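Journal club prep — side note

Before the paper discussion, L.F. wants everyone to see what a predicted structure for a comparable chain looks like in token form. Sequence:
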Amino acid sequence: MNDIRRFKKVKIALMRSKIFVGLSGIMMLGKTVLDDTAPTAMTNGRDEWYNPEFIFRFGDKGAGFIIVHENMHKSARHMQVYTKLRAIDPRLTNAACDYWINGRIKAADPSESLVAMPRDEHGNIVGLYDEKYLGKTVLQIFNDLRQKKQDGESGGEGEGEGFDEHDWTGAEGLTEEEKKKLEGDIKQAIQQGQMAAKRAGLGAGGEQLGLGELLRSRVDWRAQLQEFVSSVCADKRESSWRRPNRRYLYQDMIMPTMVSESIKEIVLARDASGSMFFKTRLVKVTSEMAAITSMLHIDRVHLMDWDGVVGKYEVMAGDQVANAKAVESVTGGGGTDPSCVSTYMKEKGIKPDAVIMLTDGEVPNWGEWDCPVLWVIANEAVIIAPVGKTINLGDED
């Protein structure tokens, strides 16, 4: 059997397996290249490269482990998320990402029924693995490794070098448009994999791999909402990387501290269709949105209620939203069509800095937007909008 056929056989078996079916969408994302000149295995966060002689040195199960490993890098967007950590220490960043991945793969298939961590001819692990890092975030692992480096310590099974390469340069070479598209493609691919697992009644390894958490908001949604608004601020007076925003550090996010910020104009568009009244979704989300407008300096807010059409439209200052009667009363109850908001904006010549769409995500389309758009989705299902940014609130009582 030639290398290409052997590789396809291993990959298809992974995609059809009950353990790794959740990665099936990710495994179809980007291009996959088998190349004898590749040193080992590598990804830039979108595409994958494998040296067949290297990966099959460890048998089909070892090759399968490496394939899953590369696709976990893609799923977690390591090449995009941890550029700031890499600037601090490239080697430790690579190691932290690998420890995080390998622990999850081994937890997903502890009996090595389908994949096995590569080992050399003496039975020693090739790569990075330590049980103590199970359940830890990449940042927590990085900090531990950094402290050990400073203390001159070592130890831990598999400590040393990973078995793959990390194509940070290739990831940085993607255009901003490609990066934005990749982020949406990855979320959709994970969601497709989870749907495939659910339909087939499979996905036993999904919980251990943690794919679901990669879709869900990993920080308080109010903080994410505020960060989105801050990112499109028309007037950012000062920001500093010298003092990272401590609120995000434990979530593996390194963000600058904003000293002062304001935004000129924003649209708050509430889905007022019948389903939004289920479990008081609309009331909860609206109250939180009002709180955000009070926290930030927003000069002008366009408040819209929509279902199949925009049923109510009012303009007010940001500090008036919390107590406005227009917020307390809701106009709607019909069908659902988000495109009516973007259409209405074009007809009325409304050109805000950003649009925040409040919805349950049960929509026939997502519209076309000429400005940044954030989807705040209240639904027990994890729904990712294919355009703009998404925050999933869940559907709590």
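L.F.'s comment for the group: The first strand starts at residue 32 and ends at 34. Keep this in mind when we get to the figures.
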